[in-house]
Amino acid sequence: MIPRYLVDIDLNQLPVIDTDVIVIGAGIAGLFTALRASETQSVVMVTKKSLLDSNTRYAQGGIAAVISEDDSPEYHLQDTLMAGAGLCDHAAVDVLVHEGPLGVEHLIQMGTQFDIENGTYALTKEGAHSQRRILHANGDATGYEIVRALSEKAIATPGIDVWDNHFVIDLVTDQGICYGALVQKNNGERLFLRGKATVLCSGGAGQLYRYTTNPEVATGDGVAMAYRAGANIRDMEFMQFHPTALCYPGAPRFLISEAVRGEGAYLRNIKGERFMQNYHEQLELAPRDIVARAIVSEMEETKSTFVYIDITHQSEEFIKHRFPTIHKFCLDYGLDLTSDWIPVAPAMHYLMGGVQTDLNGETNITRLFACGEVSSTGVHGANRLASNSLSEAVVFGKRIVDRIEALSPLQDTPSVVYTTNRQPHAMQPFVERRLKLQKVMVRYTGLKRNRAGLQRGLDELNRQRAIFDTVLMEREEFEFANMLTCALLATTSALYREESRGGHYREDFPQRDDLRWCNHTIMNREQGQLEEWIEYV
C-alpha cells in the first residue's frame, strides 16, 4: 500500500502558521477561489513555482458560457452531456451551464478583458459545441489574460498571502478531518500550515506523459496527496489527449487551439487528403477523443508521425487577428499559419478524473475541497467539452467559498506523529525515473489501450514502488512519488474498465457498454477499488 505520508512527521515539532483558508495551487481555480475567499477570510496561497505557472496560462481557446441570445443553458447542457459520453453528473452540469455566465461577469469585474467586436463580446465556436459561446481574450491568449488579471488583483489584496516556491508535501488529517498541510520551503525547512478549510487547486497530471501541452508543474500532486489522505479519486482512466499539438523538430508540443478548427481549419494527412469525413459526421469539430484517435489512425496508415492542420483558406488578416499567439509561435520555428500547413499530433492535455467532490466542491474528507482540473465534480464525464474547464473553475470556486463561510472554526489540532523505517534511495537520477515512467504511460496507457499492454505497464510501474519506502527530501523526489501514484491509479482504472468510452479506448473492447460500464471507477487508499453507478434525472 502507498504510505499515508511521503515523509516522517511530528506536528508537535513543527512551526505552525494559522490562516482561515489554504489554497494549494494557482491557475484560474486557485486565484479565483482565493480572491472570493479573501472578501471575508484570511487566505494563504501556496504555489510550488509562481502564480503564473499553471495550465490556465496556456489555455488559448477561451471560456464557455451562455452569453448570446441565440444560445441557452439547455443547449450548453446537451452539448456537455453528449461530449461526456454518459458519465456526466447531470446536476453538476446543470450548475455549470446556469451559473457560468455569472462566473464570467465575476472575471470581468476582477479585471479580465475579453475580446469585443461591434460593441459586444466576441464569441467563437469549438469542437462539439452547437453554438458560438466561447469568449476569448487577445485572440488566442485567453488563459494568459485571465491569469494576468487575477494574479495582479491577488498580489494587491491584503487578505491574501502568496507563498511562491513552497511545496505542499501532504495534507494533514485525523479521523476524516483535514486540518491543513505539511509545507516545505525552498531551503528545505518544513512547517504545518493550519486552516479551517483547505482547497486543492493544483491542476492536472500532464507530465505523466512524455508528450503533453501541460507545463512542468503538472505532476498530479493534488490527486496523489488527496489519495494518501483518504479522499475518493474518481475516473482516472479518462485522459484527454488534445488532437492538435505542434509536432515539429526542436519545438515543444505547443497547443494549436481547438478554436483553429472552430474557425474552419481542415485536418489533412501527409498525402494532403482531408480524412475526418471517414470518422465522424461533425468532421473536424467532432469531440476531441474521436479526432485524436482519427489522427492516430491516419498516422499509422500513412506511416507518419504527424498530420497537418490547414487554415490557409482564411484571410491572412483574420488569422493574425484571431490567432496572434499561435501565429507568432509557429513563425519562431519557420512555420507560417497563414500560408503553411502546420504539422500536428495528439498530446496529453487534460485529466477528466480527479478528487471526487460534491456540488459544493467538498470531498469525502471534512474541510477538504478541490477545484479545477484536480477535481472530479462530474461536469466532464468521460470526455471534457472544450472550454468548459475555465467555466468549471469559477463556478465551483464560488460554491466552495460559500460553503467555507458556513464552517465553524477549527477545534484543537490532533498530535499527528508518523514515523517509519525509511531507507536512503538508490542514486538513479530522478530525471531518468521520470522519463521511464512517461514512456510507460505513452506506450501502455495512451490513446489506444489493451489488456496485455495495461498489465505490462502496471507491472513496470509496480517495480518503482520501492521509492515510497525511501527517504525523500527534494521537490523532484516528491513530484516523482506523486506521478507514480497517479500513474498507478490511472493504469489500474484503465485495466479495470473493459469498454471504450470518451477518453478511454480499449482495442480489445472497442465498443461502449452502457449495460455494464455506465458507472464511475473510484479508488480509495484504504477501501481499494469501488464503483459508483450513474443516477439519471
> What would you call the shape?
globular
Spans with pLDDT under 50 lasting ≥5 residues?
none
Strand content: 15-25%
Query: N-to-C terminal Cα separation, in Å?
Result: 38 Å
Percent helix: 25-40%
Any idea of the CATH topology of the domain at 239-349?
Answer: Flavocytochrome C3, Chain A, domain 1
Radius of gyration: 22 Å
CATH class of the domain at 239-349: Alpha Beta
- What class would the helix/strand composition place it in? alpha+beta
Question: Which labels suit this protein?
Answer:
single chain; 537 residues; alpha+beta; Flavocytochrome C3, Chain A, domain 1; seven-stranded mixed beta sheet; five-stranded mixed beta sheet; globular
Could you describe the 3D structure shown?
This protein has 14 helices and 23 strands. The protein has helices spanning 27-37, 73-83, 90-109, 142-155, 221-229, 258-262, 288-302, 316-322, 324-331, 388-404, 430-444, 451-462, 475-496, 514-517, and strands spanning 9-10, 16-24, 43-46, 63-64, 116-117, 120-121, 123-124, 134-135, 160-163, 167-174, 177-184, 190-200, 233-234, 239-246, 266-268, 307-310, 342-351, 354-356, 368-370, 375-376, 417-418, 519-524, 528-533. The strands form 6 sheets. Strands 2, 3, 9, 10, 11, 12 and 19 form a 7-stranded mixed sheet that branches. A hairpin with a 5-residue loop joins strand 11 and strand 12 (190-200). Helix 1 runs parallel beside helix 4 (142-155), helix 11 runs antiparallel to helix 12 (451-462) and helix 12 runs antiparallel to helix 13.
